[in-house]
Each structure stands twice: as C-alpha cells, then as structure tokens.
Amino acid sequence: MQGIVRAFRPWWVAGAWLLWFVSSGCGAGDTAQPADPGQAQEALRAVLEAWKAGETPEDLSKRTPPIHVKDLDWTSGLRLVSYQAGETGKLVGYDMNYLVVLELKSPKGNSIKKNAVYTVTTHPEFLVARQEG
Fold it and tell me: Which of 18, 69, 91, 93 is 20 to 30 Å apart from 2, CA to CA?
C-alpha cells in the first residue's frame, strides 16, 4: 500500500504546483485585456513616424516602453515617404486594426502605394504588425 501512495506522491505535488501556477496569475490563467484604442493609435503613429524618419524596428524595441514591430516592407529596405492612417480603428478580438495607405519608395527609387491593415496590441506589450498590403 505504501508503494502505491509513494507512486502517486510526485503526481500530487505536480498537480498542486500546476494549480498554484494557474491560480496565481501565471501561465494560462492570465486574463486577456482588449487593446486600449488611444494607446494603440499612439503606438501606430509612433511606428509610422519612426519608419518615415529612417529609424529601424530595432530602434523602437529599445524605447521605453518598447514597441515591437513586424513589417516586411520596412525590414526589406523600402522607405516610407508618407502615410494616411484611418482616424478610428476596429477592435478585432483583443487587438485594434487600422487601415493605412502607405506611399513607399524602393531602393531603386520606384514609388509604390499600398493599402495595409495594421494590428496593434497594447497588453501585455506593444506590438504593431502589418497584416495586409
């Protein structure tokens, strides 16, 4: 009988630890928060202005608070000449989506206009990711 109790003891300890981990706010027990529209719009504007000024996504990740950016045109070397961002975004799930018209310039000097959708997350960190265009 003691052998059976000893065999279950590690599982009991692991189960108790998992229960504490989830109930203490760590791991899968976190409550998701919808993005703050004001903060999301400010983060998007900061990202687009930084790109336009010649900064890199890495520069934004070093700011306080950091903004993490994912935009393939930016990282592939296209320059942002101008942009027109919609005044209001749309809450999709927990993130804000914004329509933006981009005017880009290739390294060879060709002008490119694109319609893009940016998804902005404000919790737990700032993340701006391009979805389309």
Answer: 18
